[in-house]
Sequence to fold (299 residues):
Amino acid sequence: MSWSVYISEYISYLKLEKSLSENSIDAYKRDIKMLLSFLEFKKLNIPPAEIELLHLRQFISWVNELGMSARTQARVISGIKSFFKFLLIDEKINSDPTALLESPKIGRRLPEILTVEEIDNLINAIDLSKPEGHRNRAIIETLYSCGLRVSELINLRLTDLFFDQGFIKVLGKGNKERLVPVSQKAIKEIEIYISQYRNHYRIDRQFENILFLNRRGKKLTRVMIFTIIKTLAKTIGLKKNISPHTFRHSFASHLIDGGADLRAIQEMLGHESIITTEIYTHLDTEYLRDTIIQYHPRA
Fold:
């Protein structure tokens, strides 16, 4: 069989059996496409069954020469391993050529965190005289109040809002639902946006249940949320490199700093493993410095 047939079957497997999101599936497709680009570059016209460890090691060297970071290389290798593991399980190949393929060692990078003051400054910088002002304010408050992924935010539906109970229902990775508490401040901003602005839009029929819409009455894109946040950061002169995910990191870090239970935060973030949540237990460097000055005999 050709690569295209195998890839098509693999994509179906990711959708139907793994229940991955479209964004995750696109990432896996890009990894395989990169391997195909390498084979084309090397003029290696060979099917998946003839791929050997040597080819894959040459591929990783080629990816490294392209200047990709160790983290990106590790992700690509993970995608390639997943593909060949599927082929082995589906009995398309007799042995897995990725079994001895090693990923580059990468350091554990702590995420960028915003202070409460910085978040307030970003929210206060929103121009409420513009039609999208209250919508953008509701978006930022929801991202920070609930610790949502950007994909969860843009897919949030009116029927997911349970404000009387103080919760919203979120559809996370792998189509797993979870209930997340929502702050009174976020509820207030969302209700203002809905009553004074959203209810006056001409809404595209297929997006009638989607909470956050653009001026054409359609669902917002991930890029649009990213642009809103980058524009606000530039407006207040914020030097940190932030994205929609920064508010999720800040949500978790501020809860940890306040003494919240790690298991509870894991549930609210929708992390499958608590190991992922534990990255937020880092200590503030200024706190470390002050602690040493106060308690170390040589300070």
